[in-house]
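Async update (no meeting this week)

Hi team, since we skipped the sync, here's where things stand on the single-chain job. The sequence we agreed to prioritize is pasted below, unchanged from the tracker. I ran it this morning and attached the output directly underneath so nobody has to dig for it. Comments welcome in thread, and please keep replies under the output.
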Amino acid sequence: MAGIVRKIIQTSRAPAAIGSYSQAVCVGQTLYISGQIGLHPTTGVMVEGGVVPETQQVMTNMGAILEAAGASFDNVVKATVMLEDINDFAAVNTEYAKNFSGNFPARALVQVAALPRGAKVEIEAIAIVGPITEES
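Output:
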């Protein structure tokens, strides 16, 4: 009987982990992407300009991780968005939506007391690696 494969996903095109975690872990066909904040992958510095550029960088980082796993935003089935200020919802939602071409994944969005490195937004996701067929 074969066991389930657990694979660590790592790419230099997304920020290195700033703690004891992996950028993503793939178990079978399920990809668990750690929460991403607006860190630039080469400098490790938070992008400036507020929640919009941070969200853009978060999605860029997440896209790089998805690509390293052989997936894209179309493979994302669930996301969790954490905001420092719930009043940033509309701005974050606009940037988030730009990354999906079809049906949106399920999502939770919460306001939190604080995020690492003073971030205004953090997003984590679960994706299915492999072909996905849409059914309505």
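Quick observations from my side:
Residues 6-128 form a domain with the 60s Ribosomal Protein L30; Chain: A; fold (CATH 3.30.1330.40).
The longest strand covers residues 76-83.
Reply here if anything looks off.
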